[in-house]
Amino acid sequence: MNRDATQTLMWKEILEQPQVFRRLLERQLPVVRAIAAEADRREVRSVVVAARGTSDHAGTFAQYLFEIRKGVPVSLAAPSVLTLYHGALDLRDSLVIGISQSGRAEDVLEVMKCGKTSGGQVVAITNDPASPMAVYADFSIDLDAGLERSVAATKTFGAQMFAVSMLAAVWSGDDAALQRLAEVPAFVEQAIQTLPAQLDRIVPQYRFLEEGFVLARGVGYPIAMEMALKIQETNYIRMRAFPMSDFYHGPMAMLHEGFPVVLFAAEGPAFQNACELASLIGEKASDLLWVTDADETGDCALEDMFEQTGASYRIVHLPRTGDDAISAFLYAVFAQMFACRLAVARGLDPDRPRMLNKVTITR
After folding, report:
1. Phi-psi region of 108 (alpha: psi -120 to 50; beta: other; left: phi over 0)
2. Largest CA distance in the chain
3. What is the pLDDT of residues 327-351, one digit of tens each?
4. Considering its fold, how many domains does the chain have in total?
5. What range defines the domain where residue 314 resides?
6. Across-strand partners of 122?
7. Which residue intervals of 242-354 are DSSP H helices?
């Protein structure tokens, strides 16, 4: 495959995200306010999110935001309880959110049906307002991202993140968080301008990558999962994502000299955790890709750490936002661009991964 990554559908759809976010804020805010008002009227006590694949990562992002900002417990549904085991769930007093790019995920729809029949409030987040999920729900947030033609979801994932961010801000009454969301398109535009040159320098060194880890914590963890998935589906590489806190409970035993690790060092509550883990990675002489929106490496002293063992490290700088819930959007763009560029460098077509279709329907 002899073409520039910028000519792929995947890359072009990544670049559409700032405008998608602006449309969401302009057009969907009334729907979001109505959902929040109804949830308050019902005295909703919990949230259940049903999704698959990339959408499930957006659901995990929602879990962090709702629990941090609203203080309600959030669970990620196991649709097989309904579709395979024919179980029954009591979802009264719950806000049941189905997330699907196509809106045709049959097992997700089954969770939504269970929610409605047991007295829950049901919301769909899809990119097709005429889809079965959108039509069935009490409320539907239209991602309005336009047709996504590349198999690997990019702009729809960003739109899902933005939609749940809007709902978390409005439902919790956090006007400042809602105002910060209005800044996301400009931050993403900055990242779009600065990342390509950095990727040109870094990606060729990963051309023969066979396996690796992506590590993060808090609101960054769902983005780490998404990066691992994007690399899996477009590059056929064994990538696994872990929260930094879980990494110590077994997976770190796999670290050895030269083992590749991508570490999201987001400025915020998890930054010091990233520094501590970087020290361990350096001790094992593993290969580190440090992705950060902090101005400097802070107290991490990466150069000193890695010089002692001779291990290599590389740094990707993202625009500084001062808010890890906002910088998460920048990490997502980095993850998408990295996977796309790497696929092209390996002679693969990121728009048409083998064995995959744009719409996957499971039960």
Report:
1. alpha
2. 62
3. 999 999 999 999 999 999 999 999 9
4. 2
5. 185-345
6. 96
7. 244-247, 271-283, 302-309, 324-345
